[in-house]
Design a protein that fits this description.
Shape: globular
Order of helices and strands: HEEEEHEHEH
Pfam family, one: PDDEXK_11
Protein name: PD-(D/E)XK nuclease domain-containing protein
Distance between the termini: 48 Å
CATH class: Alpha Beta
InterPro entries: PDDEXK_11
Domain PD-(D/E)XK nuclease: 11-155
Structural class: alpha/beta
Number of domains: 1
Number of helices: 4
Number of strands: 6
Length: 156
């Protein structure tokens, strides 16, 4: 029996998961320990992270989780968030960037790094988000994966 090829949405989700795995690897190789979500705020490890950490309601009032919550970054001592966005083909994900920026500004409890990559973003979308850094509360930085690795080598 032949297997059904993955849909475009399934492929996009798989690609996003791979980018999240890369971020997790960077954190782990930098000495951070993954802890259960429920223990993130109380864990004893100084350098720790949790995946899919709930932050409460987003701007629409529905429950929201962030990709990574991180403690122990020297320049962000009170905690940080890393959000991962991947877009390999053109689509509607880049239209979600203003939604992300508004949630970061109004709902995210810690300074946030957005790791954004893939070749399918609409022209100007990434530049728009990078341009919001000085204006959106809690938007600390916007990096491609290679920029994130460079930053992590200096800052983690």
């Amino acid at each position: 029996m032949a297997s059904v090829p993955p849909s475009a949405g399934q492929r996009a989700n798989q690609s996003g998961n791979k980018l999240e795995a890369l971020v997790s690897t960077v954190l782990t190789q930098s000495g951070y320990v993954e802890v259960p979500r429920a223990a993130f705020l109380t864990a004893l490890e100084l350098k720790r992270f949790a995946r899919q950490w709930p932050i409460g309601p987003g701007i629409y009032g529905t429950p929201m989780k962030v990709d990574f919550a991180v403690m122990g970054i020297p320049s962000l001592p009170n905690g940080s968030i890393i959000e991962v966005k991947w877009q390999s083909v053109s689509g509607s994900v880049d239209e979600k960037l203003p939604y992300l920026a508004l949630n970061i500004d109004q709902r995210f409890p810690f300074p946030t790094i957005v790791v954004i990559d893939g070749g399918g973003w609409k022209r100007g979308a990434i530049a728009w988000l990078k341009g919001r850094v000085p204006y959106v509360g809690n938007l600390f930085a916007v990096y491609s994966m290679s920029e994130f690795i460079d930053w992590s080598n200096q800052s983690l």
